[in-house]
Amino acid sequence: MNVNGQAKGQPVGDRWRRRCKKRLLSVLSASTNTVLGPRKQNAFGILMYHRVVPPPRGLARPTYNVPPGRFEAQLRGLLRRGFEPWPLRKVLEFHRRGQPIPRRAFVVTFDDGFDNVYQFAWPVLERLNVPATLFLTTAYLDSPDPFPMDNWELAGSASVPTVCWRPLTTEHCREMQASGLIELAAHTHTHQDFRGRPEIFAGDLDRCLAELRRCFGLEDATFAFPYGEKKPGFSSPELVAVAKRVGVLCGLTTEGELVRPWDDCFGWGRLMPEDFDTGASLAAKLGGWYNPWRRIGRLVLLLPEGRGPRNE
Fold first, then answer.
1. pLDDT category, 21, cuts 50, 70, 90?
2. Closest-CA residue to 85 (of 44, 141, 39)
3. CA triplet 290, 296, 302: central angle to 5 degrees?
4. 301 vs 158, more confident
5. CB under 8 Å to 30, separation ≥6 — which residues?
């Protein structure tokens, strides 16, 4: 396992079994939510997307991808169920003032900065009037090469369209920002493994913020930790202290958790939609049912824990 993620080198059979188990857990949590309603009444959820692109036929499925049609169906399903999309900054302002955040509020975020977000996700967001935050790794804006942390084995290959892996351009970011629907945000400059390197992290994050100011006039920024898991140390207290010192407004993680009113916004978790999730199963994740079933699944179905940093 390396910093590029768990998909590379993982046997196909293991991936398939893991995917089947996760699908089963999504079905179980959706059914439970339909019957019993939300498990947690005083929490809201943040969704974490990466790629939104049609998967190439007959080739390895892109990692961390939700196809455009499924992406739209997920959001429409949530809206039909009464969920209300909020901008991240609005949630942070309510949190800062101690104001209650509605149970059915949710936030949409994207990590890294794939150009397919501009090509395929943004038109959906505009049609549905759903705001979103886009966490950019600023070193790779306008790059013709894949992200170095992209764990999809076909990233950069001539056998797949470049839209599947290409980073965003500055022009496309500005166009989305000008719409008022998309907030640009920080995801560090180079998306490295910063564990045990707080000063390197500080310099890299500061460089990211400088690029956001220079390119987009952004004077303050929200932030999401690269890789982001707490237990392995990607959003450790040491790195949280650095992020607060550098001056970002929050520090989102990749922990699959709902946000409670008393949680520090430098440790808020996010829920990752899968390409098989429906509006019903996402509503169950936002309702707090997926994690209990996942814990049961680990015991009964022997669903393995993810190991090592992921491309998030």
1. confident
2. 44
3. 115
4. 158
5. 278, 280, 281, 283, 284, 289
Q: Are 108 and 132 in contact (CB under 8 A)?
A: yes
Length of the chain: 312
User: Which tokens belong to 141?
Assistant: 């804006």
At residue 283, what is the residue type? A
DSSP state of 160: S
Other CB atoms closer than 10 Å to residue 115's CB: what's the count? 21
| Domains of the chain, first to last | 40-287 (3.20.20.370)
Residue 284 pLDDT > 70, yes or no? yes
Taking alpha carbons only, the member of 280, 257, 254, 256 closest to residue 26 is: 280
pTM exceeds cut of 0.85: yes
Mean pLDDT of 54-61: 96
Mean pLDDT across 21-37: 76
Which structure tokens are listed for 138?
């600023």
What residues form DSSP beta bridges with 84? 105
Q: Within a 13 Å sphere around the CA of 62, how many CA atoms are in the beta-carbon half?
A: 30
